[in-house]
Amino acid sequence: MLIAGIALGAGLLFVLVNFLLLPAIKGLKHDKSTLRKINDDLEIARGVVRMRSEVLAQLENERDRLLALMPYVPLPVLGNYLLGMSERVREWGRLADLNITEITNNDVLSLADGDALFNIHRVRVTAFGEYQNLIDFLEIMDEHNPFVVVSSLNITARPGSPEKHEIRLLLGWLVWVQPDQLPEYVFKAELEE
């Protein structure tokens, strides 16, 4: 009977250890591992939350930089960059007393492959005026948009009018590669101007 009691006790102990205690220990280990992972994820999330003000400050800074570029990097008018820029070029010509007679598209140059934000849109400008009118035009242009570049300049004398010359310029300015993907606040700022 004693042996039967010992065998029964050993059997009960075996059942308790294998079916209750070991699964509970495995469950605890699994729960501990899951808890450790959750704690690690929570620390990462806390770090992100702590960086929130930094990220917002960086975002605000980038927004301000982008908005500062807006007067110099035009958006297309009805899908066309020439319409908006020709209006500006004609205004600069009027201010410089330079008679702008023609503005035509020349080409669009890519600045880089892939991730470039800008292309260079170039136009040919034909005008008539004196040297001083041209100098005034270039100064006004630089004052209003320092990103506009003169790629070529040709001055030709006009028979019968030694003071007035035919002036041909190749102007280039930055344009957005994908203006439809700019943040919404850019368009709001453009409308407010």
Approximate helicity band: 40-55%
Overall tally of structural domains? 2
Give the DSSP E fraction (strand runs of 2 or more residues).
Answer: 25-35%
Number of strands: 4
- CATH topology descriptor of the largest domain: Alpha-Beta Plaits
- According to CATH, what is the class of the largest domain? Alpha Beta
**Mind summarizing the main beta sheet?**
4 strands, antiparallel
Q: Give the CATH architecture of the largest domain.
A: 2-Layer Sandwich
CATH superfamily of the largest domain: Ribosomal protein S6/Translation elongation factor EF1B
The main sheet orders its strands as: 1-2-4-3
Tell me, briefly, the overall form.
rod-shaped
Task: Write a structural description.
With 193 residues, the protein is α+β, with helices and mostly antiparallel strands. It has 2 domains: 2-50; 75-192, 2-Layer Sandwich (Alpha-Beta Plaits), CATH 3.30.70.60. It is 55% helix and 26% strand. The chain has 5 helices and 4 strands; from the N terminus they run αααββαββα. The protein has helices spanning 2-50, 52-69, 81-96, 131-144, 184-192, and strands at 99-110, 118-129, 149-158, 161-176. The chain has a 4-stranded antiparallel β-sheet with strand order 1-2-4-3. A hairpin with a 7-residue loop joins strand 1 and strand 2 (118-129). 12% of the residues are buried.
